[in-house]
Amino acid sequence: MTSVIQVDTIQSATSGQKIVLQGVPTGMVLATTVIRNSTRTAISAAYNATHFSGGFTKTTSTSNLVVLATVIGGQYNDGNGAVGIVLDSTTWDWGAAHNYDGSWTKSYTTVQCIGTGYFTGVSAGAHTIGWGVKAANGGTTRPYETLNPNSTDDSRNGQFISTLIVYEIAG
Amino acid sequence: MSRLKVNTIQLAPGSTVMTMNNMQPGFILSSTTIRNGTRSSLSISAYTVIFSGSFTKLRADSTIFATCNVFGDGFYSGNCGVGMQIDSASTWDYGCHYQYDGSWSGTAQTTTISGQCQWTGISAGSHTIGFGWRTFNLSSATDRPFTNFNPNNTASVDTRNQQMVSSIFVYEIAT
Hints:
The complex is a heterodimer.
Chain A: E1 9-12, E2 20-21, E3 29-37, E4 41-42, E5 48-58, E6 64-76, E7 83-87, E8 91-93, E9 96-98, E10 110-119, E11 125-134, E12 144-147, E13 162-169
Antiparallel strand pairs in A: 3-13, 4-12, 5-11, 6-10, 6-12, 6-13, 7-8, 7-11, 9-10
Chain B: E1 3-6, E2 8-9, E3 28-36, E4 40-41, E5 47-57, E6 63-75, E7 82-86, E8 96-98, E9 111-119, E10 125-134, E11 146-149, E12 166-173
Antiparallel strand pairs in B: 3-12, 4-11, 5-10, 6-9, 6-11, 6-12, 7-10, 8-9
């Protein structure tokens, strides 16, 4: 038998406590965290490096994670270099890549990086999500020489901001 | 005005899915992630769906919004009408793009495609969403955005690469 509740407002019964949803449709977004970084940082070539990261809290162990990345670099360096999204500094997802020019003046162009990461089997609680590189052949790499370029790279630039959006999805 | 105070909302015993009616417009009712991490070569054509996957739409009155990140090596056509479709070419949405280089090494760099597409009037139930290219003029079968889908560390491509994974992220949005 179908049970229906007709109500205008649902709110927590306990002040300061969030409502817990159980049994919602698979794919519903349970929580979202936006991680932004607007600090210009010099990037050294490395085999395995995280360029920036941030924390989020997963509300339940049965959900999955989708991570959308838009990362901006200055001064192109490597045409390929295995950019990726990394969970807790160890679990990499390779649903990411970057654009390369290689022929125009380095400081007059911007390296665009995009990605969609997907993680399952992640425990509830505090975690870290990051962006970086890990070359498959064990060599050192960097897609750009600076993360988040600004007017130091080209006086026309404002301060670029890179972003990771973490969606917790009902499983 | 009715107000329900509660700590936990859970599915009724014996039910398989919780239905939410009259949610605020823009509320995300459901999402589906479709991924492909297999490198494959593409033939030239005027219209090809490169990869696809299924999703289930919960309601008839909702909107479908989808984003994608798609990767390839061996740049080829400067433009070719990349986009996404639901079920057939009649729903083709051209909200995708890539920046073409054409001068640097085709294997030592990656063509990155991103897109955001939207559809209304899609029925509830099972559907297939796909990404590919469809030239607007359909007049010649000589295009493709790149030669190979999902670059990896094959020696002929670039040994630095990991196996790249392309994705479509589908949102069902309340209206």
